[in-house]
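User: Hi! I'm working on a homework problem where we have to compare a predicted structure to a textbook description. Could you give me the structure for the chain below?
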Amino acid sequence: MASALRDGTIGAIRIGLLHGTYCLGCCWLLFAILFPLGIMNMPAMAVITLLVFAEKTLPWGRAVVRLVAFVLVAYGGAMLAEAAVVTHIFELLRHGQSPRAIARLLNQEGIPGPGGRP
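Assistant: Happy to help. Predicted structure tokens:
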């Protein structure tokens, strides 16, 4: 990118566009993740900032990022499993089951409630 440096306003605009394009190409997935997190979600921004900092500056940064990626994939799998339970509940509601009957059925099936116990 240093070879693209030029003097003047046009040069500044050109290098800005090149750098912005490079940044977008490099970090588009990060942008996609930040959007649903909420642009003003400071704890999420702080965690992501620390992860990027660790990846770029620490000698074992890649290992940290891979560990976090593994944890996030496992969390995604858990959310998919929970989505199956929610789909099952809505299916029962659609077939006319009352909430009390659904709770009884879920308890019989051993599906834990929000508190973690059946």
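For your comparison, note the following. The chain has two domains: 1-39, 42-118. DSSP finds four helices and no strands in the chain. Good luck with the assignment!
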